[in-house]
Amino acid sequence: IDAETGVNISFQSFVKNIKKDVYNIKNLDSASVYILKVDNSIQSLILIATFFYFRKKIILFPKNQRLNSQLKSNFNFLAYEVYVGKKLSLKKISNTKLAEFNFDILIMSSGSTGKSKLVKLELNKSLNNSISMGKLCKFNKQNIHYMIMPIYHVNSLFFSFLSSLIYKQKVIIRRKFYPLEFWKDIKKFKIKTTSVSPTIVRYLNHFKVAFKKINFLKIVICSSSFLTKLDYKNFKKNFSINITQGYGLSEATNFNSLMPT
User: How far apart are CA 1 and CA 14, in angstroms?
Assistant: First the structure.
C-alpha cells in the first residue's frame, strides 16, 4: 500500500505484473548493466523485482538525481541509463564491454570517504540474507511492515522489500520520511515492524507527539550508522518502544550483527 496515494496492490497482482514483463526486460542484453532511477513507489518496486526475476544486472539510483562524472568514472562496463514511460528506453553511457560479470547488483556507496563507489553484490547470497533477516524478525503473512528507508539503500532493498516479498507480508510504503506522518501511519495501518536509521530516530525524538501507548509495534530495527545511547534512551522514554540495533550497516551491508539495546 502506498501511504501517500492510497494505491493498493495484492501480492498476486504484484507477481503477475513481474511475470507479465510489459517492458520486455527478459530480452535485454545480460552482459550489460542497467541503471534504474527509482523511488519508493509501487511502479519502481515492480521494475526492480522484474529485473531481478530475469537476472539482469542493475544499479539503483535516486530517481531525481543526475549521474555525476565522478560516478561514471567507475563504469568499466557497458552501462545503460533506463527511462520508463509507456515503453522502456535506454541511453548508453559507457561502451566498455566485459566478457564476464561476477555480480548481479551494484550498490552505490560513499561510506566515510565522501566519494561515490560501487559495491558488487550477488543476488543469490542477497536473497539468502533476506530470508534469514525475515526469519529473525518473524515475518509472516499476518505481519504489516512499514518501509520508509529509500529503496536504493541496501537495508530497504533486502530487508523491507525483498524479505517482505519472500514472506508475502503486507508492506506500507512511504516515499519520503515525514516525522509527523510516521506515527499517524503506524496507528492507521497497525504497523508491527519497521526499519529506521539513527537520523530518523533523532527526528522522531525532536518532533515528539502525544499519543496513547502503541502495543502492536513489535520490532524497530535501526540500520545505517550506529545508534547513540542518548538517542536510544530518549526514544525509549518518549515512546516506550524498544529498538534493536543492526550494528555496522552501510549502503552495502545488511547486518553484521544484531544487538538488542
Answer: 11
Number of neighbouring beta carbons within 10 Å of residue 59: 22
pLDDT tens sequence across 145-183:
999 998 888 888 888 999 999 999 999 999 989 988 999
Cα–Cα distance measured from residue 17 to residue 79, given in angstroms and rounded to the nearest whole number:
25
Give the DSSP letter of residue 4: T
Sign, CA dihedral 4-7-13-17, equals negative
> Which pTM was predicted?
0.88
User: Cα separation of 242 and 221, whole Å?
Assistant: 9
CA dihedral 36, 50, 126, 171 (to 10 degrees): 90
Question: Burial level of 92, CB count in 10 A (0-12/13-18/19+)?
Answer: exposed
Round to whole Å and give the CA distance between 41 and 44. 5
Kindly tell me if the per-residue pLDDT of 209 is higher than 90: no
Residue 196, Cβ density class (10 Å: 0-12 exposed, 13-18 middle, ≥19 buried): buried
